[in-house]
Amino acid sequence: MPEIFVVRHGQASFGSDNYDQLSELGWQQARWLGEHWAEDGQKFDHIISGDLQRHRETARGICEGLGLAGQRVEELPQLNEFDFKNVMHAYSEKNPQAIPAAGAERADYYRFLKLAMQAWSAGDIVGAESWQQFEQRIEEVLGILAAGARGGRTLVVSSGGAIAMMVRQILGAPSHSVTQLNMQIKNTAVSHFFAGRSGVSLHSFNHVPHLDTRQRREFITYS
Fold first, then answer.
1. CA torsion angle for 204, 206, 208, 213 (degrees, to 10)?
2. For 2, which of 65, 99, 115, 156 is 20 to 30 Å away at the CA?
3. Whole-number Å distance between alpha carbons of 146 and 68
4. DSSP code per residue over 100-139
5. Rounded to whole angstroms, how far apart are CA atoms 60 and 27?
């Protein structure tokens, strides 16, 4: 049965001028995942990523770990994350009192993002991409991935919100579950799907075998 392995990007550069680039740890997380798969004898027939910088760099790091440096990676912009900065801006315009103060802790920004996502999914705010457009985009890319698997094994690199929406759609969960799922997904975590005649099914979610060891648990991140 066709298998799809969807990986969230490595740790991005939170707080820097360019969040979209991987941090040094983000690169290492990606390489470790590739090395783990190489040691386990895992191989992939197709490698696909979104076209954000953090997606491209994560795919490159995984390929390096797999011993596939220079491997061609197909890009699908439908795998990109929703524009979280735009969603937070739309929420802040209606709720200026909720904006984290300058120098606030990272957890404060996550709480603000959670509130913004909840408002977005409920239709209380409208971003550059509506919630319905986001749903349709992820539904479309799931169909593309399932059709393209053709009995093989496909590796996909995407983002937390997009992966959370995939899981919601596959499980038929309510819209508000996307926010909760998104906040749980670790950097370079693997979610494993099967693509059959009846559609795509979830086998495992948010797995980090390359980091869940005594020596590496301190390198598990969520940003």
1. -100
2. 65
3. 24
4. PPTT--HHHHHHHHHHHHHHHHTTSS--SS-HHHHHHHHH
5. 9
| Portions of the chain given CATH number 3.40.50.1240 | 1-6+12-77+131-197+211-223
Among the four given CATH numbers 3.40.50.1240, 1.10.10.10, 2.30.110.10, 3.50.50.60, the one describing domain 1-6+12-77+131-197+211-223: 3.40.50.1240
Q: Transcribe 31-59 into DSSP letters.
A: HHHHHHHHHTT---SEEEE-SSHHHHHHH
**Going residue by residue through the chain (223 aa), what tens digit of pLDDT does each one get?**
899 999 999 999 977 778 899 999 999 999 999 999 999 999 999 999 999 999 999 999 999 999 998 899 999 999 999 999 999 999 999 999 999 988 888 899 999 999 999 999 999 999 899 999 999 999 999 999 998 877 799 999 999 999 999 999 999 999 999 999 999 999 999 999 999 888 899 999 999 999 999 999 999 999 8
Residue 11, Cβ neighbours under 10 Å: how many?
Answer: 25
Q: Which residues, 6+ apart, have CB-to-CB distance to 10 below 8 Å?
A: 22, 23, 25, 26, 27, 28, 29, 30, 54, 57, 58, 61, 187, 188
Q: How many CB atoms lie within 10 A of CB 14?
A: 12
pTM, two decimal places = 0.95
**Residue 166's closest CA among 53, 56, 60, 80?**
80
Backbone angles phi, psi at 194, to 5 degrees: -115, 140
